[in-house]
Design brief:
Shape: elongated
Number of helices: 7
Distance between the termini: 67 Å
Order of helices and strands: HHHHHHH
GO molecular function: heme binding
Structural class: mainly alpha
Family: Belongs to the p22phox family.
Radius of gyration: 29 Å
Oligomer: single chain
Strand content: under 5%
Largest sheet: none
Protein name: Cytochrome b-245 light chain
Low-confidence stretches: none
InterPro entries: Cyt_b558_asu (IPR007732)
Organism: Emberiza fucata
Length: 163
């Protein structure tokens, strides 16, 4: 059995936490408290490339991937993400409307810490250039020999019995 990539699970958990915090803070504080939830959502929306297998990119992820790549080790390192999520979970824990987001951020922080200890790191999903079919390379030449046929004796019609 293969190894679990913990960062993938932490990413989904943190994105859910960010969305929950945005909704909870929106109802409680209005626009002023949305910053933490929006920051978490923007940081967590781009998925990391998996070590083995294929990774399905989220819709519009490539734009936020450029921003996350630009910030370099601050966003690539999972130790820093674990500390950031733990720090953002503390103030949100004082509001009843954001308690679900707080719990989710705490869990995501723990999973990111586990991913960091296991040596995982965020890496962008690079788009592979599509290969165009070559004019002569992809077509096979026609066969030069005819298909095999049975011997002439076997090809003759068998006489019908009873007719």
């Amino acid at each position: 059995m293969g190894q679990i990539e913990w960062a993938m699970w932490a990413n989904e958990q943190a994105l859910a936490a960010g969305l929950s915090e945005c909704e909870g803070v929106w109802g409680a504080l209005g626009h002023s408290g949305n910053a933490a939830g929006v920051l978490v959502c923007l940081l967590e929306y781009p998925r990391s490339k998996r070590k083995k297998g294929s990774t399905m990119e989220r819709c519009g992820q490539k734009y936020l991937t450029a921003v996350v790549k630009l910030l370099g080790p601050l966003t690539r390192n999972y130790y820093i993400r674990a500390i950031l999520h733990a720090a953002l979970a503390v103030p949100a824990g004082f509001l009843l409307s954001t308690i679900l987001g707080t719990v989710c951020l705490g869990i995501a922080s723990g999973i990111y810490l586990l991913a960091a200890v296991r040596g995982e790191e965020w890496s962008p999903i690079e788009q592979k250039p599509r290969e165009r079919p070559q004019g002569g390379g992809s077509m096979k030449p026609p066969p030069s020999n005819p298909p095999p046929r049975p011997p002439p004796d076997a090809r003759r019609k068998q006489p019908e019995v009873g007719g």
